[in-house]
Design the sequence.
């Protein structure tokens, strides 16, 4: 497995494969790898000949210093997981390499970045689009794979890739969940045992929305109320939002249909979990 610490090294690795006609895939991550990330690697392997994983905790997409500081960084474990899973290259730069002195250029995500997570976390998606653009420029992949747990992020990256003529195939993978339904996330490591048990209310709230939709309910406000009630029954949960949005525009809807996605965020102590599900 090739370990690259700067963009030039990653580009050299990628170009060596591209010149020999091999398809290159990139799986961008912030580390603290789990089975969900490896599912992305497996999907990348189906679309390409070689797979690179980037591991970088991006300071530009954090709104709070404490959250950035507390984000898990088990780099040795991550490298071991990548090796055991047959990853061909890992790109693990430090912040000073990604954002050297004098850095000042950013990629604006547009209207898709102003709603939902963007409204709650100003500047978050500006940080995402900037770092993903830099990763794409260094890795020069034919295809990049992202998880659908970050539904809005996936939509924004798809739009950016089209708008900026990047010529990269963007593949979205269904959310990988633990047996109790909780979406796998690096942030789950920060939950204590009682919070982890309580966190199942997040997927349960989405299940309640889906069940009500299957039962004939189409009014978005009623569906939201049903999902919110599930979370509010859990004492350790602090509800932030649950919204029903159009899958393409991410605008809230008054009436749900098969294109509607329920997106939610819930706090457990200092840990913020996000999740989503199509209503149909």
Sequence:
């Amino acid at each position: 497995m090739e370990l690259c610490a700067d963009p030039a090294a990653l580009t050299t690795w990628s170009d060596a494969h591209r010149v020999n006609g091999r398809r290159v895939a990139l799986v961008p991550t912030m580390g603290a790898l789990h089975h969900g990330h490896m599912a992305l690697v497996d999907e990348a392997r189906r679309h390409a000949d070689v797979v690179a994983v980037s591991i970088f905790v991006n300071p530009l997409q954090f709104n709070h210093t404490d959250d950035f500081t507390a984000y898990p960084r088990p780099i040795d474990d991550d490298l071991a997981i990548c090796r055991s899973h047959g990853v061909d290259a890992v790109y693990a730069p430090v912040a000073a390499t990604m954002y050297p002195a004098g850095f000042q250029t950013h990629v604006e995500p547009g209207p898709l970045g102003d709603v939902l997570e963007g409204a709650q976390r100003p500047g978050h998606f500006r940080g995402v689009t900037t770092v993903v653009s830099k990763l794409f420029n260094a890795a020069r992949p034919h295809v990049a794979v992202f998880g659908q747990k970050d539904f809005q992020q996936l939509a924004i990256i798809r739009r950016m890739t089209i708008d900026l003529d990047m010529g990269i195939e963007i593949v979205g993978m269904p959310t990988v969940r633990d047996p109790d339904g909780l979406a796998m996330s690096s942030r789950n490591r920060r939950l204590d045992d009682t919070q982890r048990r309580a966190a199942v209310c997040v997927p349960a709230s989405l299940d309640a929305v889906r069940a009500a939709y299957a039962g004939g309910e189409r009014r978005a406000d009623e569906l939201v109320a049903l999902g919110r009630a599930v979370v509010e029954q859990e004492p350790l949960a602090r509800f932030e939002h649950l919204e029903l949005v159009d899958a393409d525009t991410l605008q809230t809807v008054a009436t749900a249909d098969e294109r509607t996605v329920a997106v939610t965020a819930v706090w457990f102590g200092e840990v913020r979990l996000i999740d989503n599900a199509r209503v149909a």
Observations:
- Residues 124-139 form the longest helix (16 residues).
- The chain has two domains: 2-173, 186-274.
